[in-house]
């Protein structure tokens, strides 16, 4: 009866089947319900409403397989602010600079 809280995390929200691990839950979803972990998370954690980028561009963010189950922003959107492509076109220079900087790291 230990680890009861942990087990809750791996419990299938569709059929209440208890899974021993996150991997087991993923396998269970694929095999028993024929849905991917992403679809499951989208449906049961976000009520089928795809979370959107927090910068306000209206684009859906990536669903993550583990907590917090979503990205807050699409890549690079968190740094754009007022230079967002929906608002203007001054962003390209900024992005080019950032890209070349990150390329230097590698
Ligand atoms: Zn199930
Ligand atoms: Zn965005």
Give helix % range.
Answer: 40-55%
Pick out the low-confidence regions: none
Classify the beta-strand content into a percent band. Answer: under 5%
Mean model confidence by pLDDT: 79
- The shape is elongated
Query: Based on DSSP secondary structure assignment, what is the total number of beta strands?
Result: 0
Total domain modules: 2
Alpha carbon gyration radius: 19 Å
Bound molecules: zinc ion
Biggest sheet, in brief? none
- Quickly count the helices: 4
Succession of helices and strands: HHHH
Instruction: Give the N-to-C terminal Cα separation.
Output: 48 Å
Strand-pairing-aware structural class:
mainly alpha
Structural summary, described in words:
- The protein is mostly helical and 106 residues long.
- Helices cover 41% and strands 0% of the residues.
- The chain has helices spanning 4-10, 22-33, 37-45, 91-105.
- It is elongated, with a radius of gyration of 19 Å.
- The structure holds zinc ion (2 copies).
- The site of one zinc ion (ZN) has 7 residues, from helix 2.
- One zinc ion binds at residues 53, 55, 57, 59, 73-74, 77.
């Amino acid at each position: 009866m230990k680890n009861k809280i942990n087990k809750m995390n791996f419990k299938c929200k569709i059929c209440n089947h208890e899974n021993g691990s996150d991997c087991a839950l993923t396998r269970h979803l694929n095999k028993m319900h024929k849905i991917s972990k992403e679809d499951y998370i989208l449906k049961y954690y976000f009520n089928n409403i795809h979370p959107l980028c927090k910068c306000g561009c209206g684009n859906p963010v990536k669903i993550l397989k583990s907590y917090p189950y979503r990205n807050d922003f699409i890549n690079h959107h968190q740094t754009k602010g007022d230079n967002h492509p929906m608002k203007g076109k001054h962003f390209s220079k900024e992005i080019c600079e950032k890209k070349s900087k990150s390329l230097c790291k590698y």
